[in-house]
Hints:
The chain is of the alpha+beta class. The chain is about 45% helix and about 20% strand. The chain is built from four helices and nine strands. The strands form four sheets. A three-stranded antiparallel beta sheet has the order 2-1-3, with no helix packed on it. The longest helix has about 30 residues, at about 55-85. The chain is elongated and about 80 Å long.
Amino acid sequence: MARFLNTTTLAWRDDDGTGAARDGELTNPDLSAVEAVPSKYWKVASGSVVEMGSEEKAVVDAAELDAVKSAKIAAIDARTPVLLAQGVLVNGVSISCSLAAQHNLNALTVGLLIGRTQFPRGISTTSGGEHVVEDQAEFNRVSGLVWNRVTSVLDQGRSLRLQVLAATTLGEVDSVEDSR
């Protein structure tokens, strides 16, 4: 049975029963020249599968490194809101550190500055309930704990992203572990 190699994508296709190659395909190509070469370093030249030169391999490696870095940074960024949603513990209650909760605390802080925020005042918990803040001193304490949690998660995430960006090998990227 014939196998076909796309000369552009280097993707294999099994015979559909016709035995006919489509445009841009090689039929059962000779792979002896690339037997010990990873397929990411193959190319088709003059109808044969051959090994890329060192400059071409460097381009492939650079693209792969960029893709792995982008994926690692995306994973770090995706984990940040999850970590913030876990909140911060205040008197046995988990206070939300989500973006919405941060906006609420900011608005209440502005309200304090212009004399509009009154106590007691409810703020969101991670369970969907509320924690009642009795006075400004408690509000300041809770806001400080939320601020510490948020800045810690963001600072650690930024540090991880910088480690990824500084990596020069796939192994270095892989060794960056998000254990926040």
